[in-house]
Structure formats: C-alpha cells, structure tokens
Amino acid sequence: MATTINEFSIGRTVVLSFAGVIVLGCLLLMLPVSRNPDQQAVSLVDALFTSASAVCVTGLAVRDTGTTFSLVGQGVILGLIQVGGLGFLTLSTLFLSSLQGKKKNVSLPRRHLLEISYGSVDAVHPAQLLKSILLFTLLVEALGVVLLFCHFSQIKPWGDAFWNSLFHAISAFCNAGFGLYPDSLMSFRGDLLVNFTIMGLIILGGIGFLVVADGVHYLRSRIQNKNATLSLHSRLVLQTTGILILVGTLAILLLEWGGSAMGSDPAAVFLESLFLSVTSRTAGFNTSDMALLTAPTLFLVILLMAIGGSPGSTAGGMKTTTAAVCFAMLLSKAMNRPKVECLQRTIPEDTVSKAMLVVTGYVLVILLGVFLLQITESGQLPFNKAGSNLFFAHLFEVVSALGTVGLSTGITPDLTTPGKLVITLLMFVGRIGPLLVATTLVGHVAQIPYVYAEENVNIG
Question: Of 341, 367, 389, 441, which is the most exposed, with the fewest CB atoms less than 10 Å away?
Fold first, then answer.
C-alpha cells in the first residue's frame, strides 16, 4: 500500500528527512573524490560529524574544510549547509501548504510543537511564505557574494575569489560558520568590508523571515503615507537582537581590553568585540583566537550561544523571543503585575508556558550532554588529573553544538569517537528542536479526559 504524507506526522517526517540528508552527506564526503589526494581518508565518524554539522548549520569541524576536502567535497558541504539552513522551515511550510490545499488540518498539539521549533506560520499563507523565503535568500546571498568578491578578487584569482565569496556568503547567511580558512576569519580581523558583510548576512539570516516580511510591509506603507505598525513579534525580535548585540559588544570590549586575544587598539578591540557578539548567537565564525579569550568572556559567549537567533530563521538556540518572554515574566512578577506584560502588550499565558517549556528542555539537554561528554572524555580519570578547564570546555562545546553555533575552545578535533557521536547527536537535536525530537521518538500521546485534585506545595 502506498504511503501518503498524511499518514505520518509532520514532525516525524521532518526529523527523518533531515536524518536522511545527513546520512547521504556522510556517504558523499567519504568518497575519494571529495577529499584532496594528499589527505588521509575521511573516516565514517568524521564524515558523519561533518555532514551533521553542515546540515544542522553548526560549523563545528573535526577536519579542516579548506585543506581536507576537494572542490567537490566543499561543494557537498555547501549544499548541505543550504539544505540545512532553509530546509527545516521550507520543508515544514511545504507540508502545511499541502495539507491546507487538501483541506486537512494539522492537529493543535502538532502545530504547537512546530511553532515552538521554528515559529508560527499563521501570519502568511505557507505557499506565499515559501516563495518569499526563496526570493529573499537568493537576493541576500547574491549581495553577500558581490560584496565579498570585491575583497577576495584583490587577493585571489577570480575563480578562487568567486568560490570563496559564494561559500562564505551562504555559510554566513545560513548561520553555519563553516569557512575555507584554518583560522576561520582571523586573517580578516581588521577588514571592515569582510567583517560587516559577514555580520550583515548573519543578522539577516538570524532574525527570521516573518520579521523581514513584516519590516518590508511596514516601510512600504510608511513610504506611501499609510498607517502601519510592526507586530509585537517583530518589535520584540528587533529590540532583543539589538540589545543582545550592544550589551554583548560592550561587555566583551571591557573584558578583553588589553588582553591577549584582542590587544589594546580601540578600533580593533571594538570591531572584534562587535563581531564576536554577533557571531556568538549561532553563526560560528571568529576573528579572535577563542583559546586566548578570558574565562568571563567565554561564559558570556555561552549565554549568547544558548539564546541564539529568532524563530523562523536559519539560526538555532532557545531563540530571542523565548529569552525576552522569560525576562518579561520575571519583571512582571517583580512589579506584581497580574499578567506578563511586554512592550505595552499582555503576553498570553500559553506563550509564557511555551517559553518556559523551551528553556526547561534546553537546560535538561545541556546537563545531559555535559554529563555524557564528561564520561566519554574523562572516563575514570581522577578529578585532579582530568584538567581543571575540561568541564568548562565541555560545557562550551555542548552549548555550541545544541545552539548550532560552531564556536569551540579547540577541543573538537581531539574528541574521542564516542564524544564526537555525542556532539553529533546534540547538533541534530539542536537543529530540529528538543521537544520535536522527543515527541517524534515517543509518538502521539492522547490527552487524558480528567485532572487530579489540586494540593499546594512550598516553593523556595
């Protein structure tokens, strides 16, 4: 009997589709044609890790992309990045469009989980949203290629310059963090064109397509002298993104001023602090040596990586709106307000519950990931011989993988095989969403038609 799309949940189809793409990418990267002749063969685990990192737009690497892989292999990685960056949203959008066309409704629990994972699509018809996504992606990535080519064409032959521009533009817009240079973008730490182009691509890819569409509609209406306002979602995303970038930049600047990583030149420290603040929220590029950053800066980067980008974007993490709603809840409780308020609006209790559910899910996965990595990397070594910074490095690696960021303190290539598999799984869970993965594994659970009697407990 033929299987139709309606016989499977959307969430399960998305999870299995991404897993299939990762396996296909793994097989392609293991082919001899995908690596340079002077490089050792890519093992199954390394190929799987690289494929998962590309599809999950993470950027963590156990083999250097530029030297290990041939032009064919780099092309495979770039294709996986593009599929991973756009596929999750567009694939789900296609399914919703197909179901709407057949007048089939997605169940409320499934829609709830999908909205938690990548944002609501109720504001725009799915088919129209898909067209807008593809057009916006093409235009932004093409602009990024042109701007980067202006620089790379001055230092490389035109063919190499175009490939470098294309690779880094797509990688930046998809918030992947893969690069063709062993030191990421440290060689361009003072180049304004490269820095601001990459940062612009990261921000545009990370704020969400619905925010961009809302912003375009708002500007068009204002130009035509029509009344228009941005939605609460768009205002919250833009303000939270701006605050995170600004606060992150100032904090990093103060923490790293005169340090080994950035030096003491005001302009250079500001540019590198700004770049690190932007890239820490799921992009993965770096212009500073991560191993030379101070511990407080790395802890701040962990917080930024956990928050991540915005719903309905190429970025990962818990999302900016989740952090904003949780902060609004704490502020409203502190001010003894009856409801959670934000930007002169009341946030529905269901939305607050979603935000708390996302935070709880991510914290639990982070704790489990660190615990597993401590087992795989430290084993039964006594605490005083395992290395004082190992736990911090493992925490950084786990949050980077789960937030699909790609930054690392340098331990990624030295992970054991079980450790690489743990990070691979975390990247996959981070891209799909912990709650969506959990419900896919558990399956549909029917809601019970009763509730138990209430009884209070002491808190705190």
Answer: 441
Which residues lie below 8 Å from residue 437, measured CB to CB, with a gap of 6+? 15, 428, 429
Residue 299 CA neighbour count, 13 Å, CB half? 8
What is the average pLDDT value for the chain, to the nearest integer?
84
SS in 3 state form for the chain?
Answer: CCCCHHHCCHHHHHHHHHHHHHHHHHHHHCCHHHECCCCCCCCHHHHHHHHHHHHCCCCCCCCCHHHHECHHHHHHHHHHHHHHHHHHHHHHHHHHHHHHHCCCCCCHHHHHHHHHHHCCCCCCCHHHHHHHHHHHHHHHHHHHHHHHHHHHCCCCCHHHHHHHHHHHHHHHHCCCCCCCCCCCCHHHCCCHHHHHHHHHHHHHHHCCHHHHHHHHHHHHHHHCCCCCCCCHHHHHHHHHHHHHHHHHHHHHHHHHCCECCCECCHHHHHHHHHHHHHHCCCCCCCCCCHHHCCHHHHHHHHHHHHHCCCCCCCCCCCCHHHHHHHHHHHHHHHCCCCCCEECCEECCHHHHHHHHHHHHHHHHHHHHHHHHHHHHHHCCCCHHHCCCCHHHHHHHHHHHHHCCCCCCCCCHHHCCHHHHHHHHHHHHHHHHCHHHHHHHHHCCCCCCCCCCCCCCCCCC
The per-residue pLDDT for 219 is 87
Instruction: Give the whole-angstrom CA distance, residue 459 versus residue 451.
Output: 22
Longest distance between any two alpha carbons in the chain, whole Å: 74
Going from N- to C-terminal start, the domains of the chain cover 5-441
* Rounded Cα–Cα distance for residues 389 and 405 (Å): 21
pTM: 0.87
Q: pLDDT tens digits for 32-71? A: 999 999 999 999 999 999 999 999 999 899 999 999 999 9
Tell me the per-residue pLDDT of 381-417, one tens digit each, with 9 for 90 and over: 777 666 667 889 999 999 999 999 989 988 999 899 9
CA-closest candidate to residue 333, choices 460, 209, 425, 246:
460
Is residue 368's pLDDT more than 80? Answer: yes
